[in-house]
Amino acid sequence: MNIRTLKSVAAGSVLALGLVSGAANAATADGTARATILQQVTVTNTSDLQFGTVAIGTGGGAVTIATGGGRTCATTLVCSGATTAAGFSVAGATGMNVGVTVPGSVTLTETGGATMSATLNSSAASLTLAGTAADAFSVGGTLNVGGSQAAGAYAGTFTVTVNYQ
Amino acid sequence: MRLPKFMSGLGLVALVLAAPAQAAGDLLVAPTRVVLDGARGTEVILNNIDSVPATYRVSLEVRRMNADGTLDEVEPEKATAAEAQALSMITYAPRRVELAPNQPQAIRIGVRSPADLPDGEYRVHMLFRAIPTARSVTETQTTESGLSIALTPIYGVTIPVIIRKGALKATAAIGDARIDRSTGQPELTMSLSREGSRSTYGRIRVLKPGKSAPVFEVRGVAVYPEVNKRAVSFPIDTQTAAQLAGPATVQYLEEADAGGRVIAETQTVIR
């Protein structure tokens, strides 16, 4: 039994305590301890998808952040600053095979209504969990900056799901 | 915003791609699969394992398996009659919970099946994910000439919720077990074919002559009724690839808590 399994028992116990405490107050009651060990999964976001700082030079172009975090910048753009791919960590029962889904593209919308598109890709479509340590996957993307991209604050969300079969 | 001289000389528009606000919503879900055989319901535990409070949403979605084993979401209006039936008869609550760090919450799952429900396997996928915290205006405010980008991940877990009614049977077969070295990283690949009125689920393991412990084992592999044949592929290291090569027994077994029965077995030579 590893630490994560113990945590699961603890989580179960917290829920059970409310039901058990009434009986525990009776001095003569026999105690019955029951714990169901459930297989569990934890998903943690370890880093955000950061494109760094980009400025339009001679025109629009693409900025790509690889799943490893490295950047490729179109020659028409000037890129600087730190970049990271979105990182996720998954921990669960040893040997479990899980899928990862990430949308192919997302649209970012500026407060005035202008849009910019980005394509996304994941470092893995499926993981086999090692159990002892958390398994990681990352999401990189390509931001398509138009030559006359309107100034403003662009915001978007993308969904990442870890799918058990 | 003051631009360096070389940049302003080019007439640049600075796109300041600001760091998104720290996304909250790390989560724990247990168990990772729910199978209900009768009218009795169950509970799934959701826990906030983040260091800050987060609001989580629980929802049901239809997902279909592809021939490569991935599960694609299907919009509710495109659901088949059986998928729509599954969506309508599974009840669950609460659907939105605000949790303090390390505060677990039980999500109750019930079944309200109609009396004339045809025998079969009904399945939906329960999605647990955090609702991202709203960004304040000042966080995304930028200079007049600039642009900022905030791309926030909304991440979560889906687990299957399966209801079975009646005596359902399924058989499966393993084919084409081999090592694929075409992409640099070796992968153990094989096909799983399935026949019958229900899905199959379990572990795949490879046994080698003279070795009592499996050389390779992976768990949590399903073949759902919407696919009659799917491919499975698992990245392996070169050492495992070398161990697997040659005569081997490949097995597809039910999990121990489901009986541990061998669903399919094949003697093959892995290349």
Q: What does this protein look like?
A:
The complex is a heterodimer of chains A (165) and B (271). Chain A is mainly beta. Chain A is built from one helix and twelve strands. Chain A has one helix at 3-24, and strands spanning 41-47, 53-56, 61-65, 71-73, 77-80, 86-92, 97-101, 105-110, 115-122, 126-128, 135-145, 152-164. Chain B contains four helices and 18 strands. Chain B has two domains: 14-165, Immunoglobulin-like, CATH 2.60.40; 170-270, Immunoglobulin-like, CATH 2.60.40. With 271 residues, chain B is mainly beta. Chain B has helices at residues 5-9, 81-89, 137-140, 238-244; strands spanning 13-16, 27-30, 34-36, 42-48, 54-65, 71-74, 90-93, 96-99, 104-111, 120-131, 147-165, 170-180, 187-196, 200-207, 216-223, 229-235, 246-253, 262-270. The interface between A and B is large, with 67 and 74 residues.
List the helices and strands and how they pair.
The complex is a heterodimer of chains A (165) and B (271).
Chain A (H helix, E strand, L loop, with lengths): L2 H22 L16 E7 L5 E4 L4 E5 L5 E3 L3 E4 L5 E7 L4 E5 L3 E6 L4 E8 L3 E3 L6 E11 L6 E13 L1
Chain B lengths: L4 H5 L3 E4 L10 E4 L3 E3 L5 E7 L5 E12 L5 E4 L6 H9 E4 L2 E4 L4 E8 L8 E12 L5 H4 L6 E19 L4 E11 L6 E10 L3 E8 L8 E8 L5 E7 L2 H7 L1 E8 L8 E9 L1
Parallel strand pairs in B: 3-11
Antiparallel strand pairs in B: 2-4, 4-9, 5-6, 5-8, 5-10, 7-9, 10-11, 12-13, 13-16, 14-15, 14-17, 17-18
